[in-house]
Predict the structure.
Amino acid sequence: MNEILDNVDLLILSAAFLSLFSTIFVYNKEKKQAVPHPEFGHMTGPTLLFVVLTALLFLTWLTVAVSYVDMGGLNVVVAMGVATVKATLVSLYFMHLRWDRPFNSIVFVGSLLFLGVFLGFALLDTAEYNSDLLDDPFLKINTEQFGGEQG
Amino acid sequence: MSGDAHQEQSNQQAEHGDGHGHSPYQAHHFDTMQQQFEAGKLGMWLFLATEVLLFGGLFCFYTVTKSNNPELFKWGHHFLDKRWGATNTMVLLFSSLTMALAVREAQLGRKNRILFYLTVTLLCGGGFMGIKYIEYSKKFHEGLFPGQHFAYENVIDAEQVRDQQQEADRLALADLAIPAATVVSDTPKASGQVAQPASPPAGLSPAAGDLEHGGGNSAEHSTSGDDHAPGLAIDPSHLPPGARPANAHVFFSIYFCLTGLHGIHVLIGMGVMIWLMVLAQQGRFGPGYFTPVDLGGLYWHLVDLIWIYLFPLLYLVE
């Protein structure tokens, strides 16, 4: 078990290739069948869903593999960039946003924009606070006695 | 919607033979099933927006703490096992695929396949929570609780044992360095041999035996490390390198708040799966009515989406 876990990047990579082979298998099966049309709403073909899963697994492998390389500040940028690509894939294809009414996308992207405003304004003045504000009396921990390096 | 569309819809639904002229699932304040479906979907998206903002508060906690105390995360992330985190990511991504396939089967009205894909999704959710259980129980065993329950004494005990070991290693190296001075000044390969002799030369002080532990980097040494200090909650070899920052417990407050709220969402999602399975078992879903599966799927995908961000933020980024 530990040997498998120690090579988790290889595990993800093999899962991604397994998903890739499944995609080919599903594609060959799907193209022989007539495409069904729903009464309403959009029906996503299984081939596309498998393609998206394959992409997601490859991106997961990428982000785990990159985490073993120290690139300083770039690590955060790469990790967040890959996560955003993955989130876009999930929302566009798994959550049908690509074929939905645009208003649903506006609601979702709007919530993310407001989250950005929230984070941005919260970050504006946090550096102005007293650095030992974390010694909150409610926590009832006097962290001074435990030592550690003051940041 | 015009009356014509309503009429057309009713004609289609009449095939189901309910005798009402429209689908039994259509509420009377909607013109068509399509309108009902789209209204439900918009409502779900509004709910998901509030979910994003609910997690947003905790992401704000993370961002503000990290921007002010980056060393806290550099230290704390060593306690998280990215191997389990990555495995959980795969499990959740796969469950998202099976959920999307369940929605498709609901649109096609194939009952057995809906049940199959919902079951796989439910099992994946259970697997996710099982891995969470493994991770959490290790933290609880080590006393790494959030807030005031954080066991600083466990960390400090382990740190003391580690420091003693390092000190003993340094002394042992100094002893060794006298006869091996020529080797040390040689190639880097040779100096590596000095740091990790295959077997300690006879006649050395007992502390020289610690050399093996000092150079230890795998699980086999961690078991022998326990012999030195029985009753240690945290294995000294698992401690993060470098100094412990002040307020170390705050890292675990953030970790448990974020993953805990996410875990609760996974549990709720699993409940939704069971509810959908009951509905599917009753044969309710078909081309004209699949809204519950679709909306349950949206919820499940959002839980997946949040994990996509949580995993790198907590496990990977330093």
